[in-house]
Inverse folding.
C-alpha cells in the first residue's frame, strides 16, 4: 500500500507540483487548517513575506508532527498570498524546506485581497496522508 502522486501525460510537468494524489483506503489523512506567519502567542513574526512564509510552514510542520506526520507526508498544499506580497520571495524562502525526493505534492495557490489575520501576507493549509503499519 502506498500514496501515489501523479503527473499524468497531457498535463504540464512541473518540479513544483503534481496534479493527482491517490491515497489508499486505510491511510490516515491529516488536515492542517490555515497557518500564518505568527508566533505561539499570535503575533506576526515580521512584516516581511519571506519571514512570514518560513513561520507559516514551520507552524504547519508543528501541526503535522502533533498528528504523527511530517512535511514529506503532505499530499496537497493550499497557499493564499496577499496580492501586494512578493510571490517569488515567499516561495524562495520555503522552497528548500518543501523539497523532497519523488513527485511533489499538489499545490493550489491564490492571490487574495486580504487574510483574516491583520498584516498577514500568507496563509498555508495542508492535507497529509500517512500509511501506518
Amino acid at each position: 500500500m502506498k500514496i501515489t502522486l501523479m503527473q499524468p501525460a497531457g498535463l504540464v510537468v512541473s518540479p513544483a507540483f503534481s496534479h493527482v494524489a491517490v491515497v489508499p483506503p486505510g491511510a490516515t489523512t491529516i488536515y492542517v487548517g490555515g497557518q500564518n506567519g505568527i508566533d505561539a502567542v499570535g503575533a506576526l513574526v515580521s512584516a516581511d513575506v519571506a519571514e512570514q512564509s518560513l513561520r507559516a510552514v514551520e507552524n504547519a510542520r508543528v501541526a503535522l508532527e502533533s498528528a504523527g506526520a511530517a512535511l514529506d507526508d503532505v499530499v496537497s498544499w493550499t497557499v493564499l498570498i496577499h496580492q501586494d506580497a512578493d510571490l517569488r520571495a515567499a516561495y524562495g524562502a520555503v522552497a528548500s524546506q518543501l523539497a523532497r525526493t519523488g513527485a511533489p505534492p499538489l499545490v493550489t495557490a491564490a492571490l487574495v485581497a486580504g487574510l483574516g489575520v491583520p498584516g498577514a501576507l500568507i496563509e498555508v493549509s495542508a492535507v497529509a496522508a500517512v500509511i501506518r503499519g
Notes: The chain has a mean pLDDT of 96.
